[in-house]
Specification:
258 residues; alpha+beta; Heat Shock Protein 90; 2 domains; 8 helices; disordered N terminus
Length: 258
């Protein structure tokens, strides 16, 4: 290969993006089929026959993990839609979206902890129960009671990824604070090991994970924070990171309404 034939950095990026798009397209259909099939086996005994308790538990586990893969795929799609400037404008409750996002994040990180939380409907009782899991939530300002206007799915994705990241890396606690009277302000912080200065820009790059013996056991693809940054900037907002090794990490996001 001559010098002219060697792929440039831009060409490599374009090839990676095309592969990214292809994977999304080709995975959507088989995941949908797998999810529907497992759901039918669980809920249509008159058509497919009854299941033993052990079979039901195993199929339920299959379904939960297929749904996790579908959520990851949907996140990729939402990122691509945001890069094209495609947003669904609607009014929604930040309190409700935060609850849904937090339960989703817990389902992925600590599935055994989340079952009891799903059953708690009272807001104060829900927050009190979260404290027992080392999770502290506070909502103040306009959007404590008034609806926020933007793309519901993308706000949920931003919250879910920030919180799942904090839950993975915390030692004991995670705090989520939402405020703002015009723009929506979100702060998510953990008491984990922190991020070294040389890695604080890299964590927003797609498929990048920091190498650290303290974090080696933590699963992930390196897509969450890069997706958050892409979504936030596409929505006209900004994301800031404050982190110190040995102390913890804080992400602050500002998103204007539309």
């Amino acid at each position: 290969m001559t010098e002219k034939e060697k792929p440039t950095g831009a060409k490599k990026v374009n090839e990676r993006e095309r592969l990214f798009d292809l994977l999304i397209h080709d995975l959507t259909s088989p995941l949908s089929i797998a999810s529907t099939t497992a759901d039918n086996l669980l809920h249509k005994a008159d058509r497919y026959g009854s299941l033993t308790d052990q079979q039901r538990r195993m199929i339920d586990r299959i379904l939960r993990n297929v749904q996790k893969a579908q959520k990851l795929l949907q996140e990729m799609i939402e990122i691509l839609r945001s890069e094209e400037g495609l947003f669904q404008k609607e009014f929604f409750s930040i309190e409700e979206i935060l609850r849904e996002s937090l339960l989703d994040a817990l389902e992925m990180i600590s599935p055994n902890e989340v079952e009891g939380l799903y059953k708690i409907e009272n807001r104060e009782a829900f927050r009190d129960s979260l404290k027992g899991h080392g999770i502290f939530v506070e909502i103040t300002g306009k959007y404590c009671k008034s609806p926020f206007c933007h793309d519901n799915k993308k706000i949920k994705q931003i919250l879910r990824n920030l919180m799942s990241n904090a839950l993975k890396y915390r030692r004991e606690r995670m705090a989520v604070t939402i405020s703002g009277d015009t723009d929506l302000l979100v702060m998510v912080e953990d008491d984990g090991f922190g991020i070294p200065p040389e890695g604080q820009e890299a964590i927003f790059e797609r498929f990048v994970r920091l190498n650290n013996e303290k974090r080696a056991y933590i699963p992930g693809l390196g897509l969450g924070l890069s997706g958050v940054k892409t979504l936030v900037e596409a929505m006209g907002g900004e994301i800031k990171l404050v982190s110190h090794e040995g102390v913890g990490t804080q992400f602050v996001v500002r998103i204007p309404s539309i």
